[in-house]
Amino acid sequence: MPTEAGAQAPARGSLAYDPRVRAAVYQIVLVLLVTFLIYEAATNAIANLRAAKIASGFGFLEVTSGFDISQTLVPYSAAASTYGDAFLVGLLNTLLVAAIGIVLATVLGFIVGLARLSRNWVVAKLATVYVEVIRNLPLLLQLLFWYNAVLAPLPAPRESLRIYGVTLGAPGMFASLVVLVGLAAAYLLWRATERLARSPLERTLGKIAATIIGVLAGFVLLFRSGLLEATEGGIGFLNNRGLFLPKPLFGEGAWLVPAALAVGLVGAVAFRVWAKRRQEATGEQYPVGLVAFGLIAGLPALAWVATALVAGNPISFEIPQQQRFNLRGGLQVLPEFVALLVGLVTYTAGFIAEVVRAGILAVSRGQTEAAASLGLRPGQILRLVVVPQAMRVIIPPLTSQYLNLTKNSSLAVAIGYPDLVQVFMGTVLNQTGQAVEVVAITMAVYLTISLITSAFMNYYNSRMAIVER
Amino acid sequence: MNVATDAVRFVRAEPVAAAPPPTLTRGPVAWIRENLFAGPVNTVLTLIALYIVIVTVPPVMKFFFIDAVWSGSNRDACRPEVLGRPVGACWAYVIDKINYFVYGSYPISERWRVNAFFVLLALGLGWLLWLDAPRRSLGAIYFFVVFPLLAYLLLSGSHFLGLEPVPTSLWGGILVTVIVSLVGIVFSLPFGVVLALGRRSRLPIIRFFSVVFIEFVRGVPLITVLFMANTMLPLFLPEGTTVDRLVRPLVGVALFASAYMAEVVRGGLQAIPKGQYEGAMSLGLNYWQMMCFIILPQALRIVIPGIVNTFIGLFKDTTLVAIVGIFDLIRTVEASRVDPNWAAPTINTTGYAFAGIFYFLCCWGMSRYSLAVERRLAAGQRR
């Protein structure tokens, strides 16, 4: 490169030392090099494909696939579906495990991260051991461990491990009233203990007692009202064929419940925006958390009760039935899915815990002390001062952890969960041999996901960046 | 006033022995009170944590040590119905298979070459990692240039040197894990630096290519890169050329690691104050002199923890080559745990436990080393 320019040196010596000329030469050489490499690769690939008699182009997406997939979220059959359908099935499976995994990993990660910061020695050490062990072992090893060493030796369906629990039944008018009265009583009990307590200790103990009494009373009332039904043989089963859970069956008017949930969510967000504006204008504070909880949890419950009273129970559950050699009915979750989910969640949670810890440590002690000297209570300090500032540090690395989880879900191929890589890059690639197209499509999917994520991150960063004078 | 006062006058001649500090504010009791039972919530947390410890620790100890089987030559040694007691880890199986785990199917008569490779590796690592070692620049040349060549000649062999050639299909176990990680480390550092410089370059086309490469590789999972290297590398080369099965994932791992390394190095480059660049330029240094003598030595020093973290990630990610059919440690464990000669209930867990201990020790060691270096470097910066 410099020698190339130097070759012309005798005639135009000064030109070789002109930075603009040098820059142009460097860049032209790079472009030529890359073009040459791409050209070589393309011509070789075309020649090789022709020699191996492999078709090219995306026509294969319309060809009948002829293989089965163990978990399909959309209708799919080996005889009638195409490779394009197989791609869609794999993509949805990837998105499913990623979405559930992100939610669970966030919860576990925040718990572990806060536990590491706890002043409680046992709790902090326990969280530290968890993080150190999880982060220093390869994910693939953990997945294989969960799949081959934990799930595979589980008993056969006959001796399934049982999960006991309750399912939702149809509420009646009288029963609903009873439930409401019970909840109101629990709330009044809470308020009374709060007012009558003379010391913080008494107040805490009183609150705990009220909560326990309220929850117990609520459960009793719920069972008496028929809203919850206990099942004798257990509601779920865990065995070497996977996890069997109750399957929700949607009746007439079932759409009202998610619709009410959506309305509640929108309402809660709107109320929060309004309350914030109002607080900034007047200084008045509103119980945003309580109202939001009421809207998000209360509206769907109301919609459900109303639908049940008018048209019969909108959502009922089909409980898996244990038979001689297998389980019938219910919702079957593949052992591969369980292993992948558990592995991804525990692994990513270890990293999220460190992100959370770093974020909270990044808020200086002076902030807490200043807030305390303003007279804020500990809860308020956390909610109004520490968390908003910590979130600014936490969100960007947290998002990249979410992205990592999504990308790591491609390790499903090692334990046979039919995700995008396993279905498309594995089976479809082997059957069609169209490596270039299949690899390009798969990589395009992951690239799209990661570009969308980084676009969101840039938007968030630009919104949250500290505005300096 | 009162005469009797004289009679009861009392003056202490020696000081009273110091009273012990109140147990509730000092000492273990107070520590426990303050740290474990400070309030109702804290107490509940302590009880939950203790419960978790009680539930997890004794079974793990039992599995690893108390119920473990240490000697035996086949599955009967580890079957509970034969032994008549619960069986934990079957270390006898690991001991029986240890040569396979370390060397794979490398010919038994040639295994001294693998051992020599490990010794050369330890020499290079020690030279490079011991910060007070003499002539560390020579160590870097040894590790990045001489050692890879020696290792290649030693392991694959050649008739010229009188070493029997060993095809890579016979290599396996920890040997392959180490080779894949080393190739990743040795290639990713220089390529990463070049890519980072390219991304920070003023020349738009060079910057564009660097950004596209880095973001592309970082946006896709390693396993897709490995699949690509496996299926597409042979396609892109002229007809008739074959790429060794082991080299394909090595190319994938090296490309992948370079992109991540580039981002780490870029962080270091961005942390160098502008004055350093301007000072170097005002001394009349050209671009490469400025980078080699002024900027990179400072930038790389800042990002040593980040580099080690990338190495740890890379070391863990090397397990993925098992998926594309390379016999690394994970794959040898997978292959040997289904050996009918060792069919016993705890073989799976024992195999994974062995691999887990190996990976944990390596990764944990690396992170401890990085912490120590960080502390040492911070000592110089402290005011």
Search tags:
heterodimer, A: 469 residues, alpha+beta, four-stranded antiparallel sheet, two-stranded antiparallel sheet, globular, B: 383 residues, mainly alpha, MetI-like fold
CATH superfamily (homologous) name of chain B:
MetI-like
CATH architecture of chain B: Orthogonal Bundle
What's the CATH topology name of chain B?
A: MetI-like fold
Low-confidence stretches of chain A: none
List the uncertain runs of chain B: none
Task: Explain briefly what this protein structure is.
The complex is a heterodimer of chains A (469) and B (383). In chain A, 68% of the residues lie in helices and 7% in strands. Chain A has 469 residues and is of the alpha+beta class.
Ordered list of secondary-structure elements with their pairings:
The complex is a heterodimer of chains A (469) and B (383).
Chain A: H1 2-7, H2 13-16, H3 19-51, H4 83-117, H5 121-135, H6 139-151, E1 161-163, E2 166-168, H7 173-196, H8 200-225, E3 228-230, E4 236-239, E5 242-245, E6 247-250, H9 256-282, H10 288-311, E7 315-318, E8 321-322, E9 327-328, E10 331-333, H11 335-361, H12 365-373, H13 378-408, H14 412-415, H15 420-432, H16 435-464
Antiparallel strand pairs in A: 1-4, 2-3, 4-5, 5-10, 6-7, 8-9
Chain B: H1 4-7, H2 27-36, H3 40-66, H4 80-83, H5 91-103, H6 111-129, H7 136-156, H8 173-199, H9 204-219, H10 222-236, H11 247-271, H12 274-282, H13 287-302, H14 304-317, H15 329-336, H16 347-381
How does this model look, in words?
The complex is a heterodimer of chains A (469) and B (383). Chain A is α+β, with helices and mostly antiparallel strands. Among the domains of chain A are: 50 residues; 61 residues, no CATH class. Helix content of chain A is 68%, strand content 7%. Chain A has 16 helices and 10 strands. In chain A, the strands form 4 sheets. Chain A has a 4-stranded antiparallel sheet with strand order 1-4-5-10, covered by helices on one side. A two-stranded antiparallel ribbon of chain A has the order 2-3. In chain A, a hairpin with a 4-residue loop joins strand 8 and strand 9. Chain A is globular and about 90 Å long. By secondary structure, chain B is an all-alpha fold. Chain B has one domain: MetI-like (MetI-like fold), CATH 1.10.3720.10. Chain B has 16 helices and no strands. In chain B, helix 8 crosses helix 11. The longest helix of chain B is centred in the last third of the chain and has 35 residues. Chain B is extended, with a radius of gyration of 30 Å. The model of chain B has no long low-confidence stretch (mean pLDDT 87). Chains A and B meet through helix 3, helix 5, helix 6, helix 8 and helix 15 of A and helix 3, helix 9, helix 10, helix 14 and helix 16 of B.
